[in-house]
Write a structure and sequence with these properties.
By secondary structure, the chain is α/β, with parallel strands linked by helices. Helices cover about 30% and strands about 20% of the residues. Helix 3 (about 110-125) packs antiparallel against helix 4 (about 145-155) and helix 10 packs parallel to helix 11. The chain starts with 5 loop residues before the first strand and ends with a helix.
Length: about 950
């Protein structure tokens, strides 16, 4: 209605508004003007001043009030609905729902599912069959099903973490439409073209053959994505993509492999631009620790960029044995090497001191890769250190030169002939050679072979049976240009030409840069000084380790995930979903989008279709509000008429005291604020009607929402795994609410929060002494400094210390392995939450005698520990969103960490409810024996 989200169930009744002018005229003439009758004695009354006067006609403002009330009644009769459902008109034809379920649909998945559910509900009321067609599953059989079965199938769908090729579904859709006949089609689009979008819309127009088509788009958050992360010399950059111009900017977060935040970078889009850049200006050591970039507030796999060791900026040592490098630096081999390596690594030039001293310094620094240009004879000590460094994972790249040609060195992949081979000189018949090929099993496979590179001189390898297997690049005459081999965990490679322009023009080519980049990819990296790890030549394929779901959250690999080649660099697919592959110590990242991928809005202008938008709020019927308002206006009208007619004044004169009492009663009845006693009674009835867990409301909206979701998630888990069916968790304020109703209270500690008043502290003390248990969670295990006492130095722990300073708490100890808490329901070793490196503390129990302890599998005291302290953020691990997905990621995010966090919560709840009965069970044989005596 005029651009407003308002519709009417019976729009024809709005014609009643046309009667308002007639009603205006009738109200204006009522009451009628009185007739004038001449009565002589009236002259005696002229000098008496009247105390009350009655108007001859209705005042204009009272007429307007009555018209407004009448208009509200007419509008209410027409059935006004705010945010109405926009979809397909009522029909008896079958309904086909095409659902975009790629990564780009994840950010608006809830709105899409809500729209589909409304369509299925309408089809159910019309007794129509429904066919559900996820566009990510071209092989899925398309059949009509009852609306109830369609609703169940809809709830089982989830967005895929990769781009969907919609075109592949057209074949199956065409076969289904031919067999079904006429039907209504609804396409729930995400509005994103990730490729072949125009081909799909053209094919869809041919397949539907004039059937009714409704396209849902708009009204939901548009998709954003991250691509092309690059760890440059000064900063790390990543490109941010959008499809619509409505998103002005945002924040990209950087986290490490354990989920700990490293930094944030703001980005902003220029008007009408769909691409921008976010930059992290951080030290190279921190940038090398980044394992995941993600757009804050964006829930999709496309908004996540995973980084592995290929994105880490390595430190590479370059040393030259030629003295001319100092005399003519712009012609030196170190100049060409620095220019070729600097885009991908931090270069450390060994330009001061002898080459052997520089190499020793590089080995002390534990660099992952060393480049030696024309370094000849090495001392036995340096040679042994280099061999050990290579075995541990170092990558050694050597370049030939006059010194290497005359040396007898075994730090080369092949045995060399002494002296060099000169091509194209005046004393030789041989012509300069060009590059011929790259080995198919070498690191340079896939590079384009340049035809403009000329080699004038080289060192030759002694022919043997394994020379061909070690040749990574060859010249036209078959002699090797680059050789290499794996030794231990490392690599040794040799360029049979120099690193400057004297022997060849290879250093001037772009191929030289790409060859060195491939060698850098083979080198390892450690954030602290240590040996690097080179790639394993035997690992032809790598298995999935952890993968992303459509919402960008880590999880175990699906059953459809397949191993991939170790050099896989393409975008994610259904066979290779995004995530980490290979060994846990050096995984390979696969992202949803490739570096060159871009996204754009899909063009549906060529389709003859109706268009509808998603709604983010539920429809609201306004009839009740309008009728209530009209009733209030009529009541005001009655009061005004009584006042104008003098009725209220006469009533007050006759019944002054009763009127005052009635007015006071009405005002008291209309008072909106209930008494504290009534509120307390309601709170008590709600708390004792069912067993409930409680949590302390901190006043921080973000923390309170996570804790509430966490306690709700634990309550649901208890109902699924145990016999306890607890009610919804209750947020309490220790200063005002009664705590005795709850067996367990979870208290998240907010750093810097004010200490509760002493009355609240006394209530908590009494609660714990009367059998209640309080879990104090500082939620800062990953923030604790290293060391034995690091956990006590965090801001949250300092706040907790201040809170407990006036509480009478018992002596505490870390939960022993034989404690009842580890065995109340599940057998546990520790109590993880979002983090798993924090300790859990309970009341220290008296130690048993050694003989008794050996016979008891569980320790127990006289009762339950009144206090439990942890820093693992239990509620953060329990927190579940309404769609069933975890609310927060875990650190380090092991596959079963969340399951064990829930089990820890079950053990704690059962411990508080049942006490140490499991410790008493072990005495059952002795009790039975005594009863027998």
């Amino acid at each position: 209605m005029a651009g407003l989200p308002l519709s009417f169930a019976e729009p024809l009744l709005l014609l009643g508004l046309l009667s308002l002018p007639v009603l205006w005229w009738l109200l204006r003439v009522m009451p009628p003007r009185p007739r004038r009758i001449e009565f002589p004695p009236t002259r005696l009354l002229f000098d008496i001043a009247p105390k009350e006067e009655t108007p001859s006609r209705t005042p204009w403002w009272l007429t307007l009030l009555r018209l407004a009330a009448a208009a509200l009644v007419i509008l209410a009769a027409a059935g006004p609905i705010w945010n109405p459902q926009t979809g397909i008109a009522a029909s008896k034809l079958p309904l086909v729902i095409l659902l975009d379920d790629g990564w780009s649909s994840a950010s608006s998945w809830d709105a899409r599912i809500r729209a589909a559910d409304e369509l299925v509900a309408d089809a159910d009321s019309d007794r129509r069959g429904v066919a559900l067609v996820p566009l990510s599953e071209p092989a899925r059989d398309i059949t009509l099903m009852p609306a109830g079965a369609a609703r169940v199938a809809l709830r089982q769908l989830a967005p895929k973490p990769y781009s969907v090729d919609r075109v592949e579904t057209l074949t199956a859709l065409g076969r289904f439409l031919k067999s079904t006949g006429d039907c209504d089609i609804a396409w729930l689009s995400d509005g994103v073209d990730t490729g072949r979008g125009s081909e799909f819309t053209e094919g869809l127009g041919k397949v539907i053959e004039g059937r009714n088509l409704t396209i849902f788009s708009g009204g939901a958050p548009s998709a954003q994505a991250l691509v092309a992360a690059e760890n440059a010399a000064a900063k790390m950059t990543v490109k941010v993509l959008r499809t619509e111009t409505g998103v002005a900017g945002g924040t990209v977060r950087a986290v490490d492999a354990k989920g700990s935040p490293i930094g944030e970078a703001r980005y902003a889009f220029a008007p009408q631009e769909r691409e921008t850049e976010a930059a992290f200006d951080l030290p190279v050591e921190l940038r090398n620790d980044i394992a995941r970039l993600e757009i804050s507030g964006e829930r999709s796999a496309g908004a996540v960029q995973l980084l592995d060791r290929r994105w880490r900026r390595r430190a590479i040592g370059v040393v030259s044995g030629s003295s001319s490098d100092t005399a003519q630096p712009l012609l030196a081999s170190t100049f060409y090497l620095s220019r070729a390596l600097s885009p991908f690594a931090d270069i450390r030039l060994g330009d001061r001191g002898a080459p052997q001293q520089v190499i020793a310094q590089f080995l002390d620094q534990r660099l992952p890769m060393i480049v030696m240009a024309d370094v000849g004879t090495l001392s036995p000590e340096i040679r042994d250190r280099l061999n050990a460094w290579i075995d541990q994972g170092g990558v050694l790249v050597r370049f030939a030169g006059p010194r290497l040609a005359q040396a007898d060195d075994d730090l080369v992949p092949v045995k060399l002939r002494k002296g060099g081979r000169t091509l194209g000189g005046s004393l030789t018949w041989e012509k300069p050679q060009h590059m011929a090929s790259f080995a198919a099993d070498g690191p340079f496979n896939g590079l384009t072979v340049p035809k403009d590179i000329t080699v004038n001189r080289q060192v030759l390898a002694e022919p043997d049976a394994v020379l061909a297997t070690k040749s990574w690049a060859s010249l036209e005459d078959g002699t090797p240009l680059v050789t290499g081999e794996h030794r231990g965990k490392g690599v040794v490679s040799l360029f049979h030409v120099g690193a400057d322009m004297r022997w060849s023009d290879l250093p001037m080519s772009g191929t030289f840069v790409e060859m060195l980049r491939r060698l850098i990819d083979m080198s390892g990296y450690t954030s602290t000084p240590g040996p690097g790890v080179a790639s394993d030549p035997a690992a032809a394929t790598v298995a999935p380790l952890r993968t992303l779901d459509g919402f960008g959250a880590f999880g175990p690999p699906p059953s459809t995930a397949k191993p991939m080649p170790a050099d896989y660099r393409d975008r994610a697919t259904s066979d290779h979903p995004p995530g980490f592959y290979g060994p846990a110590e050096s995984p390979i990242a696969v992202n949803t989008l490739a570096s060159a991928d871009r996204i754009a809005p899909i063009d549906t202008s060529g389709l003859k279709a109706q268009h509808a938008s998603y709604t983010n709020t539920e429809p609201r019927d306004l009839r009740g509000i309008m009728l209530s308002t009209a009733l209030a206006l009529f009541l005001i009208d009655a009061i005004v008429v009584a006042m104008l007619g003098g009725g209220i004044a006469a009533l007050l004169r006759r019944r002054a005291a009763p009127a005052v009492l009635v007015l006071a009663f009405v005002l008291a009845a209309m008072s909106p604020s209930p008494s504290r006693a009534e509120s307390s009674d309601d709170f008590a009835i709600k708390s004792v009607s069912q067993t409930r867990l409680a949590y302390v409301v901190t006043g921080n909206a973000d923390i309170d929402s996570v804790v509430k979701a966490g306690m709700s998630g634990l309550t649901l888990f208890l109902a699924q795994r145990t016999a306890l069916e607890a009610g919804d968790p209750v947020g309490v304020d220790p200063a005002h609410d009664e705590l005795a109703f709850f067996p367990l209270i979870y208290w998240p500690i907010v750093p810097g929060a004010a200490k509760p008043p002493q009355d609240a502290i006394n209530k908590i003390d009494a609660y714990m002494k009367q059998g209640g248990t309080v879990i104090f969670d500082t939620r800062d295990a990953v923030e604790a400094p290293p060391g034995d006492n690091g956990g006590a130095q965090t801001p949250a722990m300092q706040t907790l210390r201040e809170l407990l300073s006036t509480l009478d708490i018992p002596e505490l100890e870390p939960v022993p392995r034989e404690h009842v808490l580890t065995k109340t329901f599940y057998l546990l070793r520790d109590f993880p939450g979002r983090f798993n490196n924090g300790q859990t503390w309970v009341e220290a129990l008296p130690r048993d005698d050694d003989d008794e302890a050996a016979q008891r599998p569980a320790r127990g005291g006289d009762g339950v520990s009144p206090i439990i302290i942890t820093s693992n953020d239990l509620a953060g691990a329990w927190a579940i969103r309404p769609d069933g997905q975890p609310m927060l990621p875990l650190t380090p995010g092991e596959p079963r960490q969340r399951e064990f966090a829930f089990r820890a919560g079950v053990n704690i709840v059962m411990y508080t409810l049942t006490g140490n009965y499991k410790a008493d069970q072990v005495h059952a044989p002795a009790l039975i024996e005594r009863l027998g005596q």
